[in-house]
């Protein structure tokens, strides 16, 4: 049985991606032709299910992967271990109503729903490269909020050094075994605060589909995709480095950092190249997934072979 | 029930077409763009799984024959074995061509450095002499006994195939486990027969001239 979530927007009101993309292209071109003063904000905004979204200088200009591929080729083991499974099992996760807890070593812990979250920090469009540890990649136009802005609001205590992310898990409807549930991930506090790190609530200008981690998920574009824990129920500030679900599953294969690195192979396969979904030949994988300029300094002096 | 020669020819032709079906469906899926977001992975993976399936089907012929008494099915075994080889070659080609696009240094590195590729490649190389000696001429030339011992290489080949799949998956080992259990059953039944045979021979060894005795044979050794 398909349980439909009550949308807070009519499907007819949602602008199809191809329409808003062409609008955006038009606006961008118009913005280029007209003096900046004549169209002050037009080129930076586009109409979406979230209202006008601010574009970000952190977005890539590469062509996004098709919406169909982004929403049918997913690793979301709670909804099945084949990549086509999650899109077929969306009824197993009900993304509304939802509560996200922010807890641990913070002065102002709080629980909040998605609407509240979006009122606290306005969503932006972030077009990011996504590199999976399995050797494929995509370009995904996320809608998300900078995690750092949210972290500031809860006032982390001085002893908080790491942030742990916990995904929703319901034993009755979701995959049993395979990993030690619930799925957990972690970041160093400075990684969590980095402007590139976002909590995604949508993609292609629309509400985040269940198979992509609805209603809210982590996106850390310079790390392998599995760091982006889906369907988050808790963000926890802790003192010690958390042990993540994949570290428990294979400590020799998956480390805490999981930074995209063409020079550090997975023990069983090379990470030097990747297949961009939709392309025929492989491309070279870039250090830190091409975000070295922005995040390289986070790892200055660290041996990334040891801290993989 | 033993089919007549024309019937067997028809069965062989039907089997040949059936064996081509997975490849045909894969081609159709590629043309129709219905293989998902990563068709190259889907093709490579499917060809590999069919290689393993054909190996297991080939290994199932002898047990099926023994338990059903359909001795004629052994005459289908060569087709099944050769299709296992053909799918294996296609699987390797899809890796070399579609996946790596003839990047020979990367391929050589993979074969040497990645245990799962090493064992898969070894399995395919081991299949070459078997495919090469599949003709009636080769069987006659080698002699039945030699031919048979050479073709027992299918046992390690199938084991390497299962291991190749097992080491490839990231975490969910359900599928390789299913193939491995089936293989274990197919090899286990052979070990059981061999043990039975050994016992029979052992029992017989103490009665070297059994045929000479008339009347009741008295066992003087108990096992």
From TrEMBL, chain A:
Family: Belongs to the MsrP family.
Domain Oxidoreductase molybdopterin-binding: 91-246
Entry superkingdom: Bacteria
Gene name of the record: msrP
Binding positions (Mo-molybdopterin): 74, 77-78, 132, 167, 212, 217, 228-230
Assembly and interaction partners: Heterodimer of a catalytic subunit (MsrP) and a heme-binding subunit (MsrQ).
Name of the featured protein: Protein-methionine-sulfoxide reductase catalytic subunit MsrP
Catalytic activity: L-methionyl-[protein] + a quinone + H2O = L-methionyl-(S)-S-oxide-[protein] + a quinol; L-methionyl-[protein] + a quinone + H2O = L-methionyl-(R)-S-oxide-[protein] + a quinol
Entry's cofactor comment: Binds 1 Mo-molybdopterin (Mo-MPT) cofactor per subunit.
EC number(s) per entry: 1.8.5.-
Function noted in UniProt: Part of the MsrPQ system that repairs oxidized periplasmic proteins containing methionine sulfoxide residues (Met-O), using respiratory chain electrons. Thus protects these proteins from oxidative-stress damage caused by reactive species of oxygen and chlorine generated by the host defense mechanisms. MsrPQ is essential for the maintenance of envelope integrity under bleach stress, rescuing a wide series of structurally unrelated periplasmic proteins from methionine oxidation.
UniProt cofactor(s): Mo-molybdopterin
Keywords per UniProt: Metal-binding, Molybdenum, Oxidoreductase, Signal
One GO term (biological process): protein repair
Molecular function per GO: metal ion binding; molybdopterin cofactor binding; oxidoreductase activity, acting on a sulfur group of donors, quinone or similar compound as acceptor
Post-translational modification: Predicted to be exported by the Tat system. The position of the signal peptide cleavage has not been experimentally proven.
UniProtKB/TrEMBL annotation, chain B:
Location within or outside the cell: Cell membrane; Membrane
BP-aspect Gene Ontology terms: protein repair
Topology in membrane: Multi-pass membrane protein
Keyword Magnesium carried by entry: no
Cofactor(s) required, per the database record: FMN; heme b
Pfam families (alphabetical): Ferric_reduct
Domain Ferric oxidoreductase intervals: 48-162
GO cellular component, one term: plasma membrane
Cofactor binding, note field: Binds 1 FMN per subunit. Binds 1 heme b (iron(II)-protoporphyrin IX) group per subunit.
Transmembrane intervals: 12-30, 50-68, 80-98, 118-138, 150-167, 173-193
Sorted UniProt keywords: Cell membrane, Electron transport, Flavoprotein, FMN, Heme, Iron, Membrane, Metal-binding, Transmembrane, Transmembrane helix, Transport
Molecular function GO labels: electron transfer activity; FMN binding; heme binding; metal ion binding; oxidoreductase activity, acting on diphenols and related substances as donors
Protein family (similarity comment): Belongs to the MsrQ family.
Assembly notes: Heterodimer of a catalytic subunit (MsrP) and a heme-binding subunit (MsrQ).
Role, per record: Part of the MsrPQ system that repairs oxidized periplasmic proteins containing methionine sulfoxide residues (Met-O), using respiratory chain electrons. Thus protects these proteins from oxidative-stress damage caused by reactive species of oxygen and chlorine generated by the host defense mechanisms. MsrPQ is essential for the maintenance of envelope integrity under bleach stress, rescuing a wide series of structurally unrelated periplasmic proteins from methionine oxidation.
Protein name listed in UniProt: Protein-methionine-sulfoxide reductase heme-binding subunit MsrQ
């Amino acid at each position: 049985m398909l349980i439909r979530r009550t949308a807070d927007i009519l499907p007819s009101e949602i602008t199809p991606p191809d329409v808003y993309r062409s609008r955006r292209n038009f606006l961008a071109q118009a913005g280029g032709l007209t003096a900046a003063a004549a169209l002050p904000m037009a080129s930076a905004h586009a109409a979406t299910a979230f209202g006008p979204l601010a574009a970000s200088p952190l977005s890539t200009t590469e062509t996004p992967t098709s919406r169909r591929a982004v929403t049918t080729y997913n690793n979301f083991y709670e909804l099945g271990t084949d990549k086509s499974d999650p899109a077929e099992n969306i009824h197993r996760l009900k993304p509304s109503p939802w509560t996200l807890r922010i807890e641990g070593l913070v002065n102002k812990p709080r629980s909040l729903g998605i609407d509240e979250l979006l009122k606290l920090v306005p969503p932006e469009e972030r077009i990011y490269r996504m590199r999976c540890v399995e050797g494929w990649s995509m370009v995904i136009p996320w809608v998300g909020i900078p995690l750092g802005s949210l972290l500031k609001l809860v006032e982390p205590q001085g002893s908080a050094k790491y942030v742990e992310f916990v995904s929703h898990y319901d034993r009755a409807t979701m995959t049993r075994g395979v990993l030690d549930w619930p799925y957990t991930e972690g970041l160093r506090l400075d990684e969590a605060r980095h402007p590139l790190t976002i909590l995604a609530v949508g993609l292609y200008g629309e509400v985040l589909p269940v198979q992509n981690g609805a209603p809210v998920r982590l996106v850390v574009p310079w790390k392998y995709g599995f760091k982006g824990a889906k369907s988050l129920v808790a963000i926890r500030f802790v003192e010690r480095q958390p042990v993540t679900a994949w570290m428990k599953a294979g400590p020799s294969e998956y480390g805490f950092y999981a930074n995209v690195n063409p020079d550090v192979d997975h023990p069983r396969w090379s990470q030097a190249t990747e297949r961009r979904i939709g392309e025929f030949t492989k491309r070279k994988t870039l250090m830190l997934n091409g975000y070295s300029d922005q995040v390289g300094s986070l790892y200055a002096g660290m041996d990334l072979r040891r801290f993989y | 029930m033993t089919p007549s020669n024309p019937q067997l020819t028809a069965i062989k032709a039907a089997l040949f077409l059936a064996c081509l079906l997975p490849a045909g469906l894969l081609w159709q899926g590629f043309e129709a763009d219905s293989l998902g977001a990563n068709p190259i992975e889907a093709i490579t993976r499917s060809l590999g799984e069919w290689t393993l399936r054909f190996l297991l089907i080939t290994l199932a012929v002898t047990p099926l024959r023994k338990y059903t008494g359909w001795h004629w099915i052994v005459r289908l075994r060569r087709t099944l074995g050769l299709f296992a080889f053909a799918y294996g070659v296609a699987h390797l080609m899809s890796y070399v061509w579609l996946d790596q696009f003839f990047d020979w240094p990367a391929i050589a590195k993979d074969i040497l450095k990645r245990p799962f590729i090493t064992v898969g490649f070894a399995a395919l190389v081991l299949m070459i002499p078997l495919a090469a000696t599949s003709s009636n001429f080769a069987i006659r030339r080698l002699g039945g006994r030699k031919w048979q011992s050479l073709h027992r290489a299918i046992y390690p080949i199938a084991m390497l195939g299962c291991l190749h799949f097992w080491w490839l998956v990231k975490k969910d080992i359900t599928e390789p486990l299913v193939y491995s259990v089936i293989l274990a059953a197919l090899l286990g039944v052979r070990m059981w027969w061999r043990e039975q045979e050994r016992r029979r021979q052992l029992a017989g060894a103490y009665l070297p001239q059994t045929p000479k005795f008339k009347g009741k044979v008295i066992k003087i050794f108990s096992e």
